[in-house]
Design goal:
Largest sheet: none
Structural class: mainly alpha
Shape: elongated
Distance between the termini: 67 Å
Number of strands: 0
Order of helices and strands: HHH
Radius of gyration: 24 Å
Number of helices: 3
Low-confidence stretches: none
């Protein structure tokens, strides 16, 4: 009853102390994440989103008066 199956062990997260990542790998992951984030921040806002925001603002103004 106290034994674990392979499937149970596979889904349980490893202990925090068992996870060791090479600093070079951490740096590469960090640089990659920052580059993706920078791309997202620089991307233009889709027109449909701007329309929805304008509609929301109009409704708020209407309800506020």
């Amino acid at each position: 009853m106290g034994e674990r199956t392979e499937k149970q062990e596979a889904v349980e997260p490893p202990e925090e102390r068992d996870v060791v990542l090479d600093p070079r790998i951490q740096e590469a992951i960090g640089k990659s994440l920052k580059a993706h984030y920078d791309d997202l921040v620089k991307a233009p806002v889709p027109d449909r989103f701007l329309v929805l925001l304008a509609e929301l603002e109009a409704k708020e103004r209407k309800n506020g008066q």
